[in-house]
Amino acid sequence: MASISSSTTTALDVQSLVSQLMAVERKPIDDLNTKISSYQTKISSFGTLSSLISTLQSSASALSASLGKTTATPSNASALASTSDSTAVPGTYSVNVSQLAQAQNLVAAGQTSASAAIGNGAPTTLTFDFGAISGGTLANGVYSGATFTSNGNGTASIVIDSTNNTLEGIRDAINNAGIGVTATLVNDGSGTPWRLALTATESGAANSLKITTSGGDGALDSLLAYDPAGTQNMNQTQAAQNASLTVNGIAITSTSNTVSGAIQGVTLTLQGTTASPAALTVARDATAIKAAASAFVDAYNALATQMKSRSVYGSDTATAGALAGDGTLRLMQDQLRGLFNTPTTGGVMTSLAEVGIAFQKDGTLKLDSTQFDAALASNFADVKNLFASSSGFATRIADWARTTLQPGGLIDTRTQSLNRYIQQYNDQVDRLEKQMTALEKKYTAEYTNLNLLLSRMNTTSTFLTQQLLTQQSNDK
Asked: Where are the alpha helices (H) located in 342-409, listed in sequence order?
């Protein structure tokens, strides 16, 4: 009699099976994400180029500006410091300083304490006026027979009362008022050591002080009233005076030790008097100009190198540049080449090679310092025209960079276009992801149901096998 055997069908691995099916179904999404990543890389590349173009623009503008830079070097640095701008005329000037400008200093009579009340605290107004002291004589800090003429800039007042009628209070009231006077306390070590010292904020002979009091406290009047043409209850320890100097023998006075305008484009800072005239040499700042030219060359080379590496073609995405074949990058490269190949006008020199800036085989620029220095020394006007005129290389490069970077420019337009592509692909990905979610649920349900069917079939098969085996046993 034939024997009967049973077999069991193995259940499906639904999760693994669905995962494999979805990997195939997601291929279009993967392709879209690859495109999105590619466009994002392009945008990032244009961002890098934007930064390099901005640096080139700054260096070009700085090069133009450097051609107007000058230096002003004094032979007596202890007595004189100086700066100059683009309007300064190169040459050597003779400067003799006979007197420095200074501010007036006044000091009050000594007090036993800086914090003790002075007077009865009745409100008293102190009024400060500024002007010039003339005539008379000065002995031991006191004027005799002098006159005071206000400079017409107006007076300033403070009120001293019981809340601040101490040396410390008076000092703080003056300083807090910002009236053009600085107050300090000095301890001279005597029996009445504390003395109030006043200094005019501005130097110059027309900024001497006159202090009047009004109100009920005579003690404050006795301490602080000061009229160079009358009662002087404070002593002058330093007179206000103007600076006196000569430039090429021409007498000049200044209320300040910072003198502008005496020499065109030059600012002098007087630091001491001179026993003999000091020479002031004004010259073009060749060092700054060459440094700016070098920075310009470096900025161009950095940009050109990145443009070249990002536009190179390759056999695959791993070797090709991120912007290989990009029309915007090609246009930018063409524009730059055109700018450098177009001669300037208005001068003898028309190309960068004439000042030692030449293209190398790899497309970068190289600066010949010796040739550049010689051009600056022998023909500065043409060098300046070559770079900084309306058709100059620095001018046109800066203009190109500005228009390329501005809203609506080449990079902005291309970046917006790439972003639109990314948005479109992202929208497609979103739609497909929804489809994938529904499809995954469908596959999962179908294969789960198939597993249930297989399970039932296995159960039925087992039951029938048992029944047949039982029947065979009975037949025996």
From this structure: 369-378, 380-388, 393-405
Q: What is the mean pLDDT of residues 395-413?
A: 96
Pair 271, 192 in one domain: no
**Which CATH number is 207's domain given?**
3.30.70
Asked whether residue 439 carries a pLDDT value surpassing 90, the answer given is no
Residues 381 and 450 in one domain: yes
| Distance between CA atoms of residues 85 and 70, nearest Å | 6
- How far is the C-alpha of 193 from the C-alpha of 202, rounded, in Å? 27
227 and 198 inside one domain:
yes
Residues 6+ apart with CB under 8 A from 70: 84, 85, 86, 88, 90, 265, 282, 283, 284, 285
Query: Do 280 and 387 fall within a single domain?
Result: no
User: DSSP string spanning 137-165?
Assistant: EEETTEEES-EEEE-SS--EEEEE-TTT-
| Domain stop point among 284, 317, 339 | 284
Q: Which stretch of DSSP H or E encloses residue 134?
A: strand 124-134
The whole-angstrom separation of Cα 12 and Cα 176 is 90
Number of domains, the chain: 3
131 in the same domain as 89 = no
pLDDT, the chain, mean = 92
* Torsion on CA atoms 410, 411, 415, 417, rounded to nearest 10: 10
pTM beyond 0.85: the answer is: no
Domain check: are 216 and 230 in the same one?
yes
Give the Cα separation of 321 and 333 in Å (integer).
15
Least confident piece of the model among 12-16, 91-95, 338-342, 397-401 = 12-16
**How is residue 350 annotated by DSSP?**
-
User: Can you tell me the distance from the alpha carbon of 464 to that of 50, in angstroms, rounded to the nearest whole number?
Assistant: 79
pLDDT in tens, 347-384: 999 999 999 999 999 999 999 999 999 999 999 999 99
Which contiguous run of DSSP H or E holds residue 128? Answer: strand 124-134
Of 347, 317, 443, 397, the C-alpha closest to 62 is 397
On whether both 148 and 205 belong to a single domain, the answer is yes
Would you report the helix, strand and coil content of the chain in percent, each value rounded to 5? 45, 25, 30
> Which residue, chain included where needed, has tokens 């310009």?
296
Assess whether 432 and 314 both reside in one domain: yes
Give residue 268's domain range: 70-100+243-284
Q: Which residue has the tokens 């392709």?
A: 31
Tell me how far apart the alpha carbons of residues 30 and 416 are, in angstroms, rounded to a whole number.
Answer: 23
Note the pLDDT of residue 11: 66
pLDDT at residue 4 above 50?
Answer: no
Angstrom CA distances, 431 to 18, 24, 32, 329, 418, stand at 20, 17, 12, 33, 20
Residue 240: per-residue pLDDT? 98
Please state the rounded mean pLDDT for residues 154-174.
97
